Amino acid sequence: MSRVRWREIADDLLARIDRGEYQIGGRLPTSSQLALQTGVSLVTAHKALEELQRVGAVTRGGRRGTIVAKRERRKTGRIAFIVDQIDFALNFPRPELLAAVHEGLGTEYNLVICDSKASVHREIELLNRMADESDGILCWPTGDEAAAATINNLVARGTPLVLLDRIPVDVNADVVLTDSVSATRQAAEFLIQRGHRRIGLITFDKPQVSTVVERCGMFESIMAEHGIASPDLVRKLPESLEVQDRAHFSQVLDDALFALLNGPSPATAILCVQDLLGVAVLRYAANADLRIPEDFEIVTFNDWPPHWLGRPWQAHRIAVQPSDMGRVAINRLLAQIRGEAGELRPHHIPTVFTPADLLVDSVGDPRLDRPSEVS
User: Can you list the pairs that 294-299 forms with residues at least 24 positions away whose Cβ atoms lie under 8 Å?
Assistant: First the structure.
């Protein structure tokens, strides 16, 4: 806990320096004074002041104490990309995203990829370190609100920073993300126009991830608008099943699907908020000998290549556009570095909705995978 506390104290002092509460040449509290003011040990207070010295915010030594220094950003030739986790099984971060970022960097910068391993404490540590060791930061955040103060402090200090995919609560920063609201509305309206009134939703329970909150919220709003809201058809799976407890994922999802698709009023369509769920629903249907679309229809948010779905011709796809996201994000970051960014705001990337019937043309000819059509 003390390691996190010294970081919080250092961040607070940096923010106060940036606001002008401590002027260049002014003296900060001593370690003893700081420990008394913040209620921490002398060691923790000393560590916080050492961190300010490490990042060049202060000079220390002799009788003068800890003095606020004039900081000048030094060019490193590096751009940091902090991701919430590198996952080879899920093909993350997407090659298309990385390729677009690399293309935008040209020859002036190198890209350094950092993995926060789904830990907000590691994310905070990387954000602070990369603010000093790179010329700008792209960050695919965990979404945990505990990182909000650090992100806002970096923005206030003028650190070039662009977030991708999600906005932590109470954060004011440049962010590039999928237009989940419009995409969910289009998909839900599509299913309703096809006559569905019992539409299920399957998601991981991620109240800290803004994109998931937007997708679930819009789904529930549209169902209410049409008078067909059915809370009994919403399944929110524990977030731990996505990564830490993958061994139990299939069983939990199969149980949820069995409940949704059986009984007196079963779901006739299901919306999946991400690929991992869409793949699992298609697998369940195949194992249970369920016919798609005769027995039920599937819509899935799809940021993988379509063939990763196994039977992509069976699912209506909300395809996110990682290349567009990477291109906009790096352009925004470079504009900040040049001092040309303007207002910080969200930048929404449109999705492409592809009904299952049209998917054949976009993936070659997947029908050849159907046993009845192989000669």
Answer: 295/261, 296/261, 296/266, 296/267, 296/268, 296/269, 296/270, 297/191, 297/194, 297/196, 297/268, 297/269, 297/270, 297/356, 298/269, 298/270, 298/272, 299/187, 299/190, 299/191, 299/269, 299/270, 299/271, 299/272
The alpha carbon torsion through 59, 62, 65, 70 (nearest 10 deg) reads -20
Structural domains present in the chain:
2-68 (1.10.10.10), 78-177+323-349 (3.40.50.2300), 180-321+353-367 (3.40.50.2300)
pLDDT in tens, 140-181: 999 888 899 899 988 988 899 999 998 888 898 999 999 999
Question: In DSSP terms, which residues pair with 67 in a beta bridge?
Answer: 27, 59
Question: What is the residue-averaged pLDDT of the chain?
Answer: 87
Q: Which helix (H) or strand (E) holds 299?
A: strand 297-302
pTM metric for this prediction: 0.76
> Of 358 and 193, which is predicted with more confidence?
193
